[in-house]
Fold:
Amino acid sequence: MGGPSVWPALLSLLLAVATSFFCSAIPIDDARKQLLMREKTMQLGGQLVLTKEEELANERLMALKRAEMKQAMETQKFPPSMHFFQAKNLIEKSEVFNILKKMPKGAALHVHDISISSMDWLVKNVTYRPHCHFCLTRSGILMFKFAYPTPPTPAECSEWILLEKYRKKLYNVTEFDNSLLSNFTLMTKNPEVTYANQDIIWSKFETIFFTISGLVNYAPVFRDYIFRGLEEFYQDNVFYLELRAMLFPVYELNGMIHNQEWSVRTYREVACMFAKEHPGFIGLKIIYSDHRFKNVSFIMKSIQTAMTLRTGFPRTVAGFDLVGREDTGYSLYYYKEALRIPALQVLNCLTFFMLERQIGRVLP
Ligand SMILES: *[C@@H]1O[C@H](CO)[C@@H](O)[C@H](O)[C@H]1NC(C)=O
Ligand SMILES: *[C@@H]1O[C@H](CO)[C@@H](O)[C@H](O)[C@H]1NC(C)=O
Ligand SMILES: *[C@@H]1O[C@H](CO)[C@@H](O)[C@H](O)[C@H]1NC(C)=O
Ligand SMILES: *[C@@H]1O[C@H](CO)[C@@H](O)[C@H](O)[C@H]1NC(C)=O
Structure:
């Protein structure tokens, strides 16, 4: 709370209380109670009147919350005070959290293309599909590629290893799968030690996207990945999504590459199919994105691409955004020339339209 619009209300409240202190005969305790009551009605939801059933549901939820807080005091394990990686397990066990999961959320408006499905699924499902290869770059970064036959050795790796064959030779596959999972997530037992500063965690974060892109951008996986992502959000009662998407090339087993229109069309098709099977689901939109370390000439081209895509898919492509680490990337001011392109085009269109009408008036 505390936007500018609250101040006039607060002032008049204080004035009312001050007046009641000096001009009326209500005892000070009652005046204080009234003040607190009136303040409560100014809080979010303060004027909401609950039905009997809602009151009951609220009482139960609050009782669970109080019990969890009491327990946290006793065990000294209070999730809100912990690093998220250490708290996550506890949060998932919390009854309050599991009730919140079932509540309607509406929309997820800030999610990214290749981080909408669980990494467990990538390991357990996607890396088990046929023709999946992996390699380790010289700096130890994992890469994946689906291909048949096995593709030639890439410049940055030793050679492509077929996962199916590799797993057969392993003594402990679970251990290997866990090592893949730890390549796919930031989770670690000692986050404060592992990620001593922002540079380290951003570097790992971006490495993850690089690593999983070879899995997600394989055409059959790409479709399943979107569907699976929508399913996971739907389970949390999210009915609409806006995805920031860089629309990297999606490839087929024979190496054929699809263009960005194909990717947008696929998003639209999968969302449509999903909506048919899932009542209440509203849909998804794409916010075409590019990286904010690219220079202004690149971003100008991306904005043109976003506009072209929007013309082709007006109900699916919602706009443009810049992604990546904000504090080390370029500022919006640096991109001003690029970012003003859409508005200028609208202006040009308007001018053209008005000119046309004027000419129309002059000509018979
Ligand atoms: C992987 O997921 C797809 C659907 O997304 C499913 O059809 C398939 O059976 C799954 N495979 C495995 C090995 O779990
Ligand atoms: C395989 O590794 C997992 C995880 O490290 C471990 O829990 C399991 O006991 C291991 N299995 C064998 C047969 O060594
Ligand atoms: C990533 O996976 C590779 C291959 O299993 C493994 O050698 C490496 O330790 C993993 N990296 C991390 C950070 O777990
Ligand atoms: C933008 O970057 C590209 C490639 O790095 C370069 O060729 C181009 O000259 C740069 N443009 C500007 C305006 O800096």
Summary: The pocket of 2-acetamido-2-deoxy-beta-D-glucopyranose (ligand 3) is lined by residues 142, 176, 179-180, 182-183 (CB under 6 Å). The beta strands are 106-112, 132-136, 142-146, 161-162, 238-245, 250-251, 257-258, 283-291, 317-323. The chain has two domains: 73-103, 110-351. The chain has a mean pLDDT of 91.
